[in-house]
Specification:
Layout lengths: L10 E4 L9 H16 L3 E6 L11 H11 L9 E2 L4 H13 L3 E4 L3 H4 L19 E4 L6 E6 L3 E6 H4 L4 E3 L7 H11 L4 E5 L6 H11 L5 E5 L23 H11 L12 H11 L26
Parallel strand pairs: 1-2, 2-3, 9-10
Antiparallel strand pairs: 4-5, 5-8, 6-7
Helix pairs in contact: 1-8, 6-7
């Protein structure tokens, strides 16, 4: 008898968008995903989510990768760039269109404003030269999954999200489709990212099921917020990580609810070895101390 195939290796990833330097908020996601992957004996990959050229900052991707290397967070295997994967997204979209799961939509944002921005049916007679493509989400379509930090999460995708965009009216690929295609293409088994993407996960699971792709395990980490309670991001001018890599790693470690490392390791490599030995996922909080991040309004790419 043929031997059964060995199980697929555990594989995590960090997927920033190149809109500015690596900052303290994105470092939490990078470190958390690295720790989870290494704790499982798996690989850690990096993907640059450069889907939106108007938002990109020149040189940001290389600066982010250089910062990760200074922190000792070196990916296993080549860095993937979404800008080179349009043909794969087009093939997935064609499958959804051919199966009747997706449709061309001429509705504008103004057309949908009366419905709170949700799309459940096209506006009669709406025509535009640059239509979007949406996924058809039927009534009663609810998705539930178990998150490693937040527990059981359930969303009625039809009622709370509606028919969502797969290819934008400006011709750019929507994050929801691209991330599903790329997680499958990279063999990602564990997605560890910020809690702002918690409510995007049911959409992605729905797409995975329709495309016949595997569903990874999900862990959504707390967000680092500014004094106004907003997610730290490059668009809000968040400062890059400190010049001292160990201080930056220490700050992200404490934010993840972990006990201080003592004695403090002298450099990033030694720090990561010590952190991996001491890492306790059960200590990760659902939100920042004293403040919970909203999770229902941000379908932006990780690290944005």
């Amino acid at each position: 008898m043929p031997r059964p195939a060995p199980p697929a290796p555990r594989r995590g990833r960090f997927a920033p968008s190149p809109t500015g330097p690596l900052h303290a908020g994105s470092l939490v996601a990078a470190l958390g995903s690295w720790l989870m992957a290494r704790r499982a004996g798996g690989e850690w990959r990096v993907r640059i989510e450069d889907l939106d050229p108007p938002r990109e900052a020149p040189g940001a991707a290389q600066a982010q990768l250089a910062a990760l290397h200074r922190l000792g967070l070196v990916p296993d295997g080549p860095v993937l760039r979404q800008s080179a994967r349009g043909a794969l997204y087009a093939a997935a979209l064609a499958r959804l269109l051919d199966a009747g799961h997706a449709f061309v939509c001429h509705c504008s944002r103004a057309d949908l404003a009366v419905h709170g921005g949700l799309h459940r049916a096209c506006v009669p007679g709406a025509r535009r030269p640059d239509p979007a493509v949406r996924l058809r989400v039927p009534p009663g379509c609810a998705i539930a999954f178990d998150d490693g930090v937040h527990g059981r999460v359930r969303q009625d995708v039809h009622a709370e999200v509606g028919d969502f965009v797969l290819r934008r009216a400006d011709g750019l690929w929507a994050y929801q489709l691209a991330v599903v295609v790329d997680d499958a293409g990279q063999g990602i088994t564990d997605v560890v990212r910020g809690a702002d993407l918690l409510d995007s996960t049911p959409r992605q699971i729905l797409l995975q099921r329709l495309l016949g792709l595997p569903t990874p395990a999900y862990v959504h980490l707390p967000l680092r917020l500014d004094e106004a309670g907003r997610k730290l991001s490059k668009s809000l001018g968040a400062a890059p990580v400190e010049d001292d890599p160990v201080a930056a790693l220490d700050a992200a470690w404490r934010f993840l609810g972990q006990a201080p490392l003592a004695p403090r390791p002298p450099g990033p490599s030694a720090w990561l070895v010590a952190a991996l030995a001491a890492f306790a996922p059960a200590r990760i909080p659902r939100g920042a101390p004293g403040r919970l991040a909203a999770t229902h309004n941000a379908p932006d790419p990780e690290g944005a």
